[in-house]
User: Fold these one by one.
Assistant:
Number 1:
Amino acid sequence: MLEIISGSSVKKLDTDFITEKGITSHRLMENAALAFCDWFEENYHRNDKVGIFCGPGNNGGDGLAIARLLWRKGYDIIVFLVGDTEKASADCRLNRELLPDKLPAISMSSDDIAHMEFDLNVVVDAMLGIGVNRPLAGDFLNMVVKLNDLSNVRKVAVDIPTGLPADECLQGEALKADVTVSFQYPKFSLMFPEHAGYVGVLHVVGIGIGNKFMRQFTESKYYLQPSDISKRHLNFSRFAHKGDFGRVLLVGGSYGSIGAVRMSAEAALRTGSGLATCFVPACGVDVIQASLPEVQVISSSGEKRLCWDEGDMGVNRFDAVGIGPGMGGSAETVTFLESFLNVYKGPKVIDADAINILSNHKKLLNYLDKDAILTPHIKEFERLVGHCENHKQRLGKALEFSSEHSCVLVLKGAHTSISFPDGTQYFNSTGNKHMATGGAGDVLTGMITSFLGQGYGTKNAVLCGVFQHGLAGEIASEDKKRGTIATDIIQAIPKSYLQLNVD
Ligand SMILES: NC(=O)C1=CN([C@@H]2O[C@H](COP(=O)(O)OP(=O)(O)OC[C@H]3O[C@@H](n4cnc5c(N)ncnc54)[C@H](O)[C@@H]3O)[C@@H](O)[C@H]2O)[C@@H](O)CC1
Ligand SMILES: Nc1ncnc2c1ncn2[C@@H]1O[C@H](COP(=O)(O)OP(=O)(O)O)[C@@H](O)[C@H]1O
Ligand SMILES: [K+]
């Protein structure tokens, strides 16, 4: 787990770290530059023409150190100095002095910025980092606009693209990087979908500040890593029987949308559930039985929509429930959901149409508790909490919602966030754009429900479910790219266990 801390805390973190370790700030900058160069060497050839654009702060200092290190390794480097070098930070100055004499370094005047033609394959952006405190203007703005206009040039941002604030939404312009190599932890604003076009692909490289040290600065925001997930998985004995792996119930479907709940059930089975049962309208029974023989089916008395019959329908015999996929929002279904939530007392995942029903019938929110996990995508979330101006506001409201209703709130998308009532918020690091396909969310519902049924606590179930769902998406899309569909993600779940070394 990587701590995500705010930009304003970094200065203190740096000072405390170098004091505790008895090292210089220059050494820490060198660590950052070395980490960047290791990544760079794996991704770029020595015959690439690399332009390193350096500002006057410590981000620029990183850039100058990177230039020196790559030059020594035989890369074709040219340095462009942007901004007022008179105001350079001490470590930036030092790294400027350490530049080899033969390494070309050009101070860019406003005139140069306007007229210079760049002949480069790779731009390394080290103009401004997390110290940015106002919208870009003047030379920085002009340079960023010019670099953004370059085509056929890969742009790699050091720590964060120039102009992007570490914790806020962008105002004005920023460098549009193809790749961002962020030091130690991803900056909070790199999680916002509004910034996708600036961040590009995100890589995080360690610079030697250990987790234990980082924890002193915790702001209860975390970026999930594979090692956090492997240790949250339960081990099952070789005598385990299907009951140990849990009985789960997937509730949903309506005429024309039976596939949704069927996919949740298949995902639950592929995640390891001992027994999976679907609770669907009568029209869905044959469909599911014919296509998924491992699943049992309970038929609702409603032909096309779920309807609640008398009694408790035996739902409390299940270890966990996933409810909502494809269920629609008819009046009978609203009554059904209310009756279900009233009767069923175990852990549950509430998704899709069930969330929309909660949005339209706020009194049902009273059924939420610590065992409830809501999994809205952005639109479903805004139906629930109202319009949000930007993702930062959404993340704030997700925490508020979770705390107010004592439930877990999973806000889906790239870097899915998971908010807990105690104010902690986790960000996912797996998954990719090829998962933006109908039914991918139903798969997630099945996976989290499965972990709940296998006896995982709510927190472990949701963290393992979200992370492993993204991993399965990555595996599925490796050779299918944008041809990936939701059932491919289900097929890839077993391989996600292999990657995590969980049996
Ligand atoms: N622990 C860490 O995270 C480490 C951070 N390092 C680097 O240090 C960077 C932060 O360095 P700094 O705090 O010096 O910040 P920057 O390098 O971002 O530069 C800040 C300077 O730019 C000025 N400035 C801010 N906004 C501006 C704007 N819109 N136009 C023009 N000038 C502007 C500020 O007044 C200040 O002088 C990080 O992004 C990272 O690259 C590394 O060197 C080592 C360790
Ligand atoms: N660009 C993306 N990067 C990472 N994950 C994504 C991306 N787009 C979608 N996903 C994931 O795919 C799933 C889509 O869910 P959802 O929108 O509910 O789809 P559906 O309603 O069709 O099932 C979510 O888990 C989401 O996090
Ligand atoms: K930068």
Note: The chain has 18 helices and 18 strands.
Number 2:
Amino acid sequence: MRFFSCLCCGKRSDGKKKVKKTEPSWREFTPKELQAATNSFNYDNKLGEGRFGSVYWGQLPDGSQIAVKRLKAQSSCREEINFAVEVNLLGGIRHKNLLSARGYCAEGQERLIVYEYMPNLSLVSHLHSSESLLDWTRRMNIAVTSAQAIAYLHHHATPRVVHGDVRASNVLLDSEFEARITDFGYGKLMPEEDGATKTKNIGYLSPECVESGRESSSGDVYSFGVLLLELVTGKRPVERLNQTMKRGITEWVLPLVYEKKYGEIVDQRLNGKYVDKELKRVVLIGLMCAQSEPEKRPTMSEVVEMLMNESKEKMAYLEGIPLFNKKNGSEILS
Ligand SMILES: Nc1ncnc2c1ncn2[C@@H]1O[C@H](COP(=O)(O)OP(=O)(O)OP(=O)(O)O)[C@@H](O)[C@H]1O
């Protein structure tokens, strides 16, 4: 049986409170164990489907809940060896706001990655759903904790990791609604994607990544900037204006910043319940990250510092950036 958590309070549907446990150790799972945990990958256990495969809810004999990602089949032995090596490597990268794998299973054609189950699912299911509303405090907490996780990947993890796919569906939320970033380093695990599946992260991809197809830490910063704007506006990264025209979130936000119309930028569903100076700070940082020239973007550790720095001096510094000067701003962004 599967227990879903209430989107607003995080309580399990069976009424039991979730008890915080110490992090389980990394290990290899057998196919039998994962079959038993997921009721043979039953359709009822399916949490969703991504570009790399399907994800199933499961429960281990010790009662812990897991999410098992069943990757699409690959072919050669070499890929199988790489898979084990890379999953081991990624499993060793630990940070409280990263959703690291608990383990894996590789047998025959099967490649499975086992994660801790996140009861509040992904950020995307809260930002663009009428059933759930994230309050301002939670949004700010998600902004900081997800920035810290990506900064850890870029600056402290061994080896350093480019996430390569920063976006709202890869920000999972734990029982306290803190961010747990997932799907990092997948570029290494999976073969090149086809065009049809790649379109899923359109709007988050930096111009240089669209052009070259290459991932980079400054590309992650760009995607994170778009994510920040999505978080405070509740709008999708790309909006369809009519049959032929689309508009990126930065193109919509920047003119409103020139006119200092922050009240129009913020998610209207918040009904005015937000903190002015925090909104301003996040919007400016988001735009700064999503500049088209990679060398003008901050690093992720600078982003963390700016998000947490409440001083007037920092705000004055942000407002003085050429991007926010109407004369040249839109050129820098496009
Ligand atoms: N650890 C987890 N706990 C709870 N739900 C999860 C977990 N991992 C994934 N999911 C859910 O499973 C679904 C599929 O996730 P998956 O990561 O495969 O795809 P995605 O992130 O939506 O897209 P993509 O693979 O293109 O990045 C999503 O709805 C996600 O919220």
Note: The chain has two domains: 29-116, 123-333.
